[in-house]
């Protein structure tokens, strides 16, 4: 089994029904070893199918899923995990995240963490973590019993939302940052600075974006159902940006957030 979260994963949010299994299979065959799903995406069964179809041994792959914010109390969380476990059909899930914090902490994080630990004893999961937690919420979680085992905080990071304060706070607390929506809903492909840096390296703007994230020690999630895009994205791990490139990308930050639903915490 893999014991730490692999640095480059395949996302599966908003992947059209019927396309997830093929996308997972193709990514795993290209070398990806980390797949990100969520109960909310309604595609866990397809993720499990894609893994089985790929022929890659189960123990070589890291699968993350998430529990929706309205299922964080003890009983609801165990039921949610039993469902995810059954749908994925991959045995203990490598990582389960709180998808969004309980609004106004209606369910105390200590209750959720205790339920995660119980779920681990039941063989439902191996590791747990959080997503969309602000620095104060993360600090509170880390101080609760079982909090020291939180392996990641997954949140939005792109060249246009560098999220510097939260990235630094999370890393300082010893928790890995995982970035979602790195391409900012397609904006990265057209941005002049990213296009220019990409040309210099014989790369693509998407690759430049991923290399910039990796240079900050951030785990990258990119989603694609297209095998060519998956390969291009995967190859970003070989791209080394220089300090000048990184400074130019850092300057693109404008704090623009795409994921900000009504139940989001106060960023
Ligand atoms: N925790 C949370 O609240 C949360 C929120 C949002 C997302 N996430 C996770 O993070 C993952 C990544 O976010 P995202 O889905 O927004 O990913 P993304 O990689 O920023 O964007 C995915 C889109 O970009 C296109 N794309 C990817 N690579 C490309 C390339 N090389 N050239 C051209 N187009 C390309 C894809 O289309 P094609 O299929 O045509 O390539 C797809 O439409 C999600 O899938 C999900 O697993 C988590």
Automatic annotation (TrEMBL):
<feature type="domain" description="NADP-dependent oxidoreductase">
    <location>
        <begin position="14"/>
        <end position="254"/>
    </location>
</feature>
<dbReference type="InterPro" id="IPR020471">
    <property type="entry name" value="AKR"/>
</dbReference>
<keyword id="KW-0521">NADP</keyword>
<feature type="active site" description="Proton donor">
    <location>
        <position position="41"/>
    </location>
</feature>
<dbReference type="GO" id="GO:0051596">
    <property type="term" value="P:methylglyoxal catabolic process"/>
</dbReference>
<comment type="similarity">
    <text>Belongs to the aldo/keto reductase family.</text>
</comment>
<dbReference type="Pfam" id="PF00248">
    <property type="entry name" value="Aldo_ket_red"/>
</dbReference>
<feature type="site" description="Lowers pKa of active site Tyr">
    <location>
        <position position="66"/>
    </location>
</feature>
<dbReference type="GO" id="GO:1990002">
    <property type="term" value="F:methylglyoxal reductase (NADPH) (acetol producing) activity"/>
</dbReference>
<dbReference type="InterPro" id="IPR018170">
    <property type="entry name" value="Aldo/ket_reductase_CS"/>
</dbReference>
<dbReference type="InterPro" id="IPR036812">
    <property type="entry name" value="NAD(P)_OxRdtase_dom_sf"/>
</dbReference>
<protein>
    <submittedName>
        <fullName>2,5-diketo-D-gluconate reductase B</fullName>
    </submittedName>
</protein>
<dbReference type="InterPro" id="IPR023210">
    <property type="entry name" value="NADP_OxRdtase_dom"/>
</dbReference>
<keyword id="KW-0560">Oxidoreductase</keyword>
<feature type="binding site">
    <location>
        <position position="99"/>
    </location>
    <ligand>
        <name>substrate</name>
    </ligand>
</feature>
């Amino acid at each position: 089994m893999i014991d730490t979260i692999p640095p480059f994963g395949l996302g599966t949010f908003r992947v059209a029904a019927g396309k997830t299994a093929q996308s997972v299979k193709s990514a795993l065959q290209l070398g990806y070893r980390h797949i990100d799903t969520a109960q909310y995406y309604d595609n866990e069964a397809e993720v499990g199918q894609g893994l089985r179809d790929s022929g890659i041994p189960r123990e070589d792959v890291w699968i993350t899923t998430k529990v929706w914010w309205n299922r964080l109390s003890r009983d609801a969380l165990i039921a949610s995990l039993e469902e995810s476990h059954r749908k994925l059909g991959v045995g203990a899930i490598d990582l389960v995240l709180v998808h969004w914090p309980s609004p106004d902490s209606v369910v105390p994080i200590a209750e959720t963490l205790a339920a995660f630990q119980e779920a681990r004893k039941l063989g439902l999961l191996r590791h747990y973590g959080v997503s969309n937690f602000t620095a104060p919420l993360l600090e509170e979680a880390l101080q609760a019993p079982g909090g020291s085992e939180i392996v990641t905080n997954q949140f939005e990071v792109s060249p246009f939302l560098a999220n510097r304060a939260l990235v630094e706070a999370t890393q300082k607390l010893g928790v890995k940052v995982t970035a979602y929506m790195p391409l900012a809903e397609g904006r990265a492909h057209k941005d002049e600075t990213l296009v220019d840096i990409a040309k210099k390296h014989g790369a693509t703007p998407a690759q430049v974006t991923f290399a910039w994230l990796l240079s900050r020690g951030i785990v990258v999630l990119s989603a694609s159902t297209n095998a060519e895009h998956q390969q291009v994205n995967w190859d970003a791990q070989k791209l080394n940006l220089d300090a000048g490139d990184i400074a130019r990308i850092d300057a693109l930050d404008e704090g623009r957030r795409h994921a900000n639903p009504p139940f989001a915490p106060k960023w």
